[in-house]
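pinned: reference chain
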Amino acid sequence: MVQKRPKAAPARKSEAAPKRRGRPRAYEPDVALGKALDLFRRDGFAATSLDELSAATGMNRPSLYGAFGDKRELYIKAYARYRADARAAMGDIFRNELPIRQRLKRIFAVALDIYLSGEQGPRGCFTVMTAASEAIADPDIRAMVLEGFVELDKAFAGCFRIAKEKGELPASADPETLAQLASATIHTIALRARAGVPRRQLEQIVNGAIEVMLPSPSPLEGEGRGGG
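pinned: its structure tokens
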């Protein structure tokens, strides 16, 4: 008797290979922008090459263009990031209603922390050291620089206005003029910090500027105020 061969099991359909997803990003946009910011802040716009930006961010040129646009657009985004970081670092001090002398000292101290930072030496202020130069020929960067100046002046003016309302300043004090002096001091210490002036000397400039803006009463004035 011939044995029947068992029927072969039906061939299994090959499983469909999983769909390949797009290649994940090998970089973090915020980190890459921070690296570009460090490079532009150190060397400026013209002296920073695309090859250097590519090496610093770990992104090739097509990826850089895809994420940030051309070199100019990347520079503008880096400058906007710098301003946002500086605003976040100093915003609480401007909003905190400390006595005016104490508040100014804290503002300038934080500014010095920012300007003197940098692995390869003090970096100063992005606005003063590089953006102001690019503002000459680029209207968009010029608008950002001027906007930053106005923003800083307004922040200082608010401090002086509150101090005047509290009686910390004489009735003749002009908050707007004092604000411009305070802003000018910020720009001065930024420039000198980048040039390598030691912090101690920069603090002497700050203390002198504060004394000009908020002169201490002379002994005779003090006696006059205390006399009946």
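why pinned: The CA atoms of residues 41 and 221 lie 47 Å apart. The longest helix spans residues 139-165.
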